[in-house]
Each structure stands twice: as structure tokens, then as C-alpha cells.
Write a structure and sequence with these properties.
Layout lengths: L5 E5 L5 E5 L6 H10 L8 E4 L10 H12 L4 E3 L17 H10 L3 H9 L9 H20 L4 E4 L2 E4 L14 H5 L16 E3 L17 E3 L4 E3 L12 E7 L7 E5 L4 E3 L22 E7 L2 E6 L5 E5 L4 E3 L2 E3 L15 E7 L3 E6 L2 E6 L6
Parallel strand pairs: 1-5, 2-3, 3-4, 6-7, 7-9
Antiparallel strand pairs: 2-10, 5-6, 8-9, 10-11, 12-18, 13-14, 14-15, 16-17, 18-19, 19-20
């Protein structure tokens, strides 16, 4: 790895350090989170660990906001795999893949083309498009290209997706630093200093509970902070907050744009033996029967039964799937608040304390 891809020598002592990742073009959520944590420009240290853009509602505005933020002393903005958008204009990217991506996802390239009045279709020449976009957006595109990949200091290291060697940062593979889908599932490596990464949503880490918040593995000295912002309806932007370099006593805050609702009656939690959460890479199910707007299904990976909404069913290559579905009914007390993700006739899919689950409508004050 090149030396200009690594930021070193950052001192956390006597400062409040804030780590966040995977903004994915959701500027309103980012601004809300910075207000919630009372971000103090020039006093706090802020580390944004990549995936600044793509998939969210306003990538171009988000990028421009982060460009301005990066000029403040103490703010470090890294690169993520989704920030490498110019690869879409390389010859090795086929026209079909390029057009499919730009049409099916909210891409910053699509936003730029729309702002310039450029029509993207089968006849779009990537070289011509690249020149047109650079003519107007050289500052923005250069900023994305020039982002470092790793930031470190005494007592910590951080990157978008993974680190293989926190002691000798130049030994890390740049491609794996940007995108390593297996990193969080490995038993190794274990690090001598705390390592913070994003990229892989924390909701994928458990078969029992859908948890969107910050995760810590003390035995590996590892933090994962991607809350799925801009990716899913339940997604959120997480902040890992560390005072004076003390990672053992970290705090976390999160932000999303979901509406809140007050709880008016208690609700018991689903017993541990009956809990199942369907992760996206273990999403195959067997449909057993339908009951109105819900289906009873069997999760193939665990063999457990759960009830899912009919609109959560997906057909992929002739197989039935569902994503981010759960059997879990949230434990609730009168007077608490939940975030409402989706409403159904007799229940709502909600989030409380970063955990996804079901809430009976009789418990909610609509």
C-alpha cells in the first residue's frame, strides 16, 4: 500500500473522537446525527470511514457537505468501495452493467448527468461521459479519488472494510481494505489496538436478533459500525464515540428518518428459543401457508418457523427468499418510544434500541 493512502500519527488523548461510516448519500441523516452528538468542529475529532455516496437520496449534496467538513482540522474522510464510482466508466465495465447500475441505483453519476442534462442510455460512451463529468465536477470526482484508505494513531486504526495488519499498515491489501465481505466473520486476525470498520451492516451478524447498532468484539479488539444507512428501510447511521482514547468505555448514538411512536401498553418479548432473524446471505425459506397479509414460513438455514409479511417474499432463480425478517416481538413498557418502519393491519414492524421486531397495534399510540 502506498504511503499517501495512510493517515498516521492521530492523537486521541484529551479529545472526543467520533467514528461513523457508510453514509451512502443520506445527508439529512448525517446532519441529524451530527446535531444529536453536538459535534464541535475544531474541538472534536471526526472520522468518516468511507462509502460516502451511492444508494441514498442525495449523494452529490452529501459529497459536497463532506468536502467542506474535511477542511476543518481534525476531520478525516476515508474512501470506501462505493466511492470508487469512476470504475463504472472504465473499459472493463460492460455497457449493460454500467447502464443497469445507473438506472437501478441512485448513483452520484446519475445525479451529475441529470444536473448537466445528459441522457444516459445504451449509446452513452463512457469516455465521453467521463470527460463531460470531469469538466464540471473535477473537484468532486478528484476528492473521491484522492481519499486515503486507513487512518491510525497511538492506540487505534480504522478503515472502511478490513485490516489485515494493524501494526504494519503498508502491508495491507488496498482492495481488501475497501471491500472484504468475510472480515467480520473470521476468527482472525486479533489486533493489539482497537480497529474500527464499516462496510458490512451489523444487522447481518446474528441469526436470532436484528441489531443495527455498533458491535464490539473485545477478544478481537474490533468494532463494526455500519448501521445500514441508505441501504434498508430500517437502516441508521451510527456514531462510535470515544473520549480520551478510552475504547473500553465507548458510547454510541444513531440517527434515522423513521417516525417515532409512543408505547401505551406492555408487551412481552419472544422467548430466546423461538427467535430467528433472516440474514440476507441465508435468506432461503419454504412457504408453509398464508394467513391474510402474512405467510408462515420455515427458514432453511436454521429450520425455524416464523411469520413474514407477504410483501417480504422474493423469488430468485426459482427459490423463495425473504430478507431481514424476524420472529422477534420487542419487549416493551408503557411510555417507551419505538421507531415505526412499516404498518400492517394488526401489528407494526418497528425498531427499539437498535433492535428490529414486531409490535402489536394495541401497544401503539397512533
Amino acid at each position: 500500500m502506498r504511503s499517501d493512502q495512510i493517515v498516521t500519527g492521530v492523537n486521541l488523548r484529551g479529545r472526543r473522537a467520533i467514528f461513523l461510516s457508510d453514509v451512502h448519500g443520506e445527508l439529512p441523516v448525517l446532519q441529524q446525527l451530527l446535531r444529536q452528538i453536538d459535534f464541535r468542529p475544531g474541538n472534536d475529532l471526526l472520522f468518516v470511514l468511507g462509502d460516502l455516496i451511492e444508494k441514498g437520496s442525495c449523494s452529490l449534496d452529501t459529497l459536497r457537505f463532506l468536502m467542506r467538513l474535511s477542511r476543518i482540522p481534525g476531520v478525516t474522510v476515508l474512501k470506501g468501495n462505493n466511492d470508487d464510482v469512476l470504475k463504472l466508466l472504465q473499459p472493463e465495465c460492460s455497457a449493460a452493467n454500467r447502464l443497469g447500475y445507473l438506472r437501478s441505483r441512485r448513483s452520484i453519476l446519475s445525479e451529475m448527468a441529470e444536473e448537466c442534462g445528459i441522457n444516459l442510455d445504451e449509446k452513452t460512451e463512457p469516455d465521453t461521459l467521463r470527460k463531460q463529468l470531469f469538466a464540471r465536477y473535477e473537484a468532486e470526482l478528484s476528492f473521491l479519488q484522492q481519499r486515503p484508505l486507513i487512518v491510525s494513531g497511538e492506540g487505534f486504526a480504522a478503515a472502511h472494510s478490513s485490516l489485515q495488519d494493524a501494526a504494519h499498515l503498508e502491508n495491507n491489501d488496498p482492495d481488501r481494505v475497501l471491500r472484504d465481505n468475510d472480515f467480520l466473520f473470521q476468527s482472525e486476525p486479533r489486533f493489539a489496538v482497537p480497529v474500527i470498520v464499516g462496510h458490512y451492516p451489523t444487522i447481518c451478524m446474528s441469526r436470532q436478533i436484528g441489531y443495527c447498532g455498533v458491535l464490539r468484539w473485545p477478544e478481537r479488539n474490533l468494532f463494526a459500525i455500519d448501521g445500514g444507512c441508505g441501504m434498508h428501510a430500517h437502516g441508521q447511521l451510527n456514531a462510535l464515540i470515544v473520549e480520551d482514547g478510552d475504547f473500553a468505555h465507548f458510547r454510541q448514538k444513531s440517527a434515522d428518518l423513521l417516525p417515532s411512536c409512543r408505547i401505551v401498553a406492555d408487551q412481552m418479548a419472544t422467548p430466546p428459543s423461538e427467535r430467528v432473524f433472516v440474514r440476507y446471505f441465508e435468506s432461503e425459506i419454504e412457504v408453509l401457508q398464508q394467513d391474510g397479509e402474512f405467510l408462515q414460513v420455515r427458514h432453511q438455514a436454521t429450520g425455524k418457523k416464523l411469520t413474514i409479511p407477504c410483501d417480504a417474499l422474493r423469488y430468485i432463480d426459482g427459490q423463495t427468499h425473504c430478507f431481514n425478517s424476524t420472529s422477534f416481538w420487542l419487549p416493551l413498557r408503557k411510555g417507551e418510544q419505538v421507531k415505526v418502519i412499516r404498518e400492517y393491519t394488526d401489528r407494526c414492524f418497528c425498531k427499539k434500541d437498535n433492535v428490529l421486531g414486531w409490535v402489536s397495534r394495541r401497544c401503539l399510540a397512533f
